[in-house]
């Protein structure tokens, strides 16, 4: 039984935007600004360039390889099942980690604004679990059902961010204060680069489009175009949001601020309806990320199980809904466990490492496979783009926290152990 082909270019673009524009811009931007100062605009630019390079690499691969699984599938075809499994294992881990992190952030926004008396560790985790359950049901019922909701949420958050940007720029022009941007690089180039490594998290999600190859109407044409459009649209929004923040609030005020957009909105307006719009927009953004990430993670799990590297029951497709129900439930259960992690920043750091690790192997796969797969979408000056992708991915990894690197390597070692145990049992 095959996955149902029901996604056109419209749903693919909004699948990407649903994954990209979410928790990252609403949570990470303030922390990054406190590190880079006004140069955070360049941090977003560098991260956007990195995402574009990676996106183009994946786009070329996805134009020729339409199987669900993305970097796992590419690596498996290029280097065999072992390395393919390691990439798939790391990607498998980052999906539930991402869902857990965004669910916690969603719950924090929800309780802090609407029910401040219940804003504590226990209630945040309970609400997070309820959100995961709700998203699980939507994904099981059907791809189009889940993505229609994600699409409507995406449209709403884009409208809200556009309103925030226009109002913020107008306010900055009217109340311009040069002291807010008198030092562009307060912590030097290294601070800007560190912030770029951090805000890269805000761009994660574009690769979810490639994961939907088997369910796309026209994969060779629509997948590359959808990746390009989603990254470009996201980059424009991110840079403009960063501009509004640094023009209206001194960069030093963002230290320990995890709600930077709402914090900026409170500085430029006391209108409660405006502040409510920003808050609901944040919730809508994170809600769409949870839906879309669960969708993508379940498809990767389905692909690995189909290759007999995960238990076979995870590759079963529901006869009623035509969705990989067992894979969806598995990702949701793991997400529910990680909800009880004590540190949100720790979850995000691990997610960044696992993604960059997989992007490196996707690039290596393109270099090795290009002459064999004959992709319909070809990058010029091959292999320049995949080599640049590898270089910038390594740079962002080295700019990450050392603890996240150590823990990620430990997780990779566990993957090696699982692979050989599975092979021995088989």
Quick rundown:
The chain contains 16 helices and no strands.
Explain this structure.
The chain contains 16 helices and no strands. The chain is mainly α and 426 residues long.
List the SSEs and their pairings:
Blueprint: H1 9-20, H2 23-36, H3 40-62, H4 71-79, H5 81-114, H6 121-141, H7 143-174, H8 188-199, H9 208-211, H10 219-248, H11 260-268, H12 272-306, H13 325-338, H14 344-373, H15 384-398, H16 402-425
Helix pairs in contact: 1-7, 1-10, 1-12, 2-8, 2-10, 3-8, 3-10, 3-14, 3-15, 4-5, 4-14, 5-6, 5-12, 5-13, 5-14, 5-16, 6-7, 6-12, 6-13, 7-10, 7-12, 10-11, 11-12, 12-13, 14-15, 14-16
The Rg value, from CA coordinates, equals 21 Å
The level of helicity is over 70%
* Structural class category: mainly alpha
Mean pLDDT: 83
Give the CA-CA distance, first to last residue: 24 Å
How many DSSP-defined strands?
0
Proportion of residues in extended strands: under 5%
Overview features:
426 residues; mainly alpha; 16 helices
């Amino acid at each position: 039984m095959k996955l149902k082909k029901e996604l056109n270019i419209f749903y693919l673009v909004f699948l990407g935007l649903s994954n990209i524009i979410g928790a990252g811009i609403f949570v990470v931007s303030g922390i990054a600004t406190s590190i880079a100062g006004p140069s955070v605009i360049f941090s977003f630019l560098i991260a956007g360039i990195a995402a574009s390079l990676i996106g183009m690499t994946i786009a070329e691969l996805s134009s020729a390889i339409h199987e669900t699984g993305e970097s796992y599938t590419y690596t498996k075809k290029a280097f065999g099942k072992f390395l393919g499994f390691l990439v798939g294992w790391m990607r498998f881990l980052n999906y539930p980690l991402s869902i857990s992190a965004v669910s916690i952030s969603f719950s924090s926004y929800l309780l802090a604004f609407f029910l401040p008396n219940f804003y504590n560790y226990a209630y945040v985790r309970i609400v997070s679990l309820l959100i995961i359950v709700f998203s699980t049901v939507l994904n099981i019922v059907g791809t189009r059902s889940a993505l229609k909701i994600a699409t409507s949420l995406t449209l709403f958050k884009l409208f809200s961010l556009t309103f925030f940007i226009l109002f913020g720029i107008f306010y900055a022009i009217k109340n311009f204060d040069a002291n807010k941007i008198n030092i562009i690089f307060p912590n030097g180039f290294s601070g800007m680069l560190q912030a770029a490594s951090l805000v890269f998290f805000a761009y994660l999600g574009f690769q979810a489009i490639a994961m939907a190859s088997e369910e796309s109407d026209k994969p060779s044409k629509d997948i590359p175009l959808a990746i390009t459009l989603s990254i470009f649209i996201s980059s424009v929004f991110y840079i403009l949001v960063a501009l509004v923040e640094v023009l209206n609030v001194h960069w030093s005020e963002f230290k320990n601020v995890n709600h930077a957009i709402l914090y900026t909105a409170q500085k430029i307006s006391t209108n409660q309806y405006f502040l409510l719009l920003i808050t609901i927009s944040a919730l809508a953004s994170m809600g769409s990320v949870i839906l879309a990430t669960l969708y993508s993670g379940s498809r990767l799990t389905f692909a690995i199980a189909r290759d007999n590297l995960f238990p076979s029951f995870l590759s079963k497709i529901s006869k009623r809904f035509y969705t990989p129900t067992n894979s969806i439930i598995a990702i949701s259960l793991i997400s529910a466990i990680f909800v009880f992690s004590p540190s949100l920043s720790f979850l995000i750091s691990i997610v960044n490492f696992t993604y960059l690790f997989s992007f490196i192997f996707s690039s290596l796969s393109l270099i090795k496979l290009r002459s064999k797969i004959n992709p319909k979408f070809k990058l010029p000056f091959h292999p320049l783009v995949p080599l640049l992708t590898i270089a910038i991915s390594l740079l962002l990894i080295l700019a990450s926290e050392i603890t996240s690197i150590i823990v990620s390597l430990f997780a990779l070692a566990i993957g090696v152990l699982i692979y050989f145990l599975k092979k021995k049992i088989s």
